[in-house]
Amino acid sequence: MTALENAQLAQLIDHTLLKPEAARADVDALAREAEALGTWSICVSPSMLPVETSVKVATVCGFPSGQHSAEVKAFEARESVDKGADEIDMVINVGLARAGQYDQVEHEIRAVRDVAKAPVLLKVIIESAALDDEQIVAVCQAAERAGADFVKTSTGFHPAGGASEHAVTLMRETVGDRLGVKASGGIRTREAAEAMVAAGASRLGLSSSKAILEGGTGSGY
Fold first, then answer.
1. Is the CB of residue 51 less than 8 Å from the CB of residue 44?
2. Which residues form a coiled coil (predicted)?
3. 55 contact partners, CB below 8 Å, separation of at least 6
């Protein structure tokens, strides 16, 4: 791969640190590494905000279970925006999706969108490995109706698994070029990252960004 191609891949990456044991020093190191690698952003827990960095700052909301009320998710998102978050990655209530209550899924996404207004980007984590194809399509449609900017495969913490090429392809087919698609969870090699992009991902959530960009194998998120 040429340096330019490497830089292009880096610009698709949300360099991620969401481990419960992460400390402030770890987040500062993440930010410095992201700047050196040229990633699009860092993605950190909301308790770590604000972060001083020249890259974009993303954070999570309702993470990782999604089993928070819409009001709690909205409060968390509002506080994160007030502390400088450029992007919010919110987890849906997967139980609602599996029960076919897509109107309620739309409601909670809209509650977050109402407090995380443009230019803040809103990404909706659908936990695709826990859903069937019909549910994936319906949740992506709900996210689009609610005004989301991206749909995202996974938290990386669900026992059902993380991103798959099949899910990314289905999500891209559903939202077309109207929304972004973020693949995250279990992407640990350059080959896997490039496969997700080929399947339709326009953003990647990676915790082993340096190893992946260098062609090695990472671990974790």
1. yes
2. none
3. 15, 31, 34, 35, 39, 40, 41, 42
Separation CA 46–CA 203 (nearest Å): 20
pLDDT single digits (tens) 1-24: 333 489 999 999 999 999 999 999
Which domains does the chain carry? 3-213 (3.20.20.70)
Catalytic residue among 14, 73, 149, 152: 152
Round to the nearest angstrom and report the end-to-end CA distance of the chain: 24
The residue written with tokens 């080929």 in the block is 198
pTM for the complete prediction?
Answer: 0.95
Length of the chain: 221
DSSP SS3 for 197? helix
Cα separation, 40 vs 19, in Å, equals 20
Of the candidates 18, 75, 32, 15, the residue with the CA atom closest to the CA atom of residue 208: 15
Residue 89 annotated to the active site? yes
**Is-catalytic flag, 152?**
yes
Which position among 89, 117, 133, 149 bears the catalytic label?
89
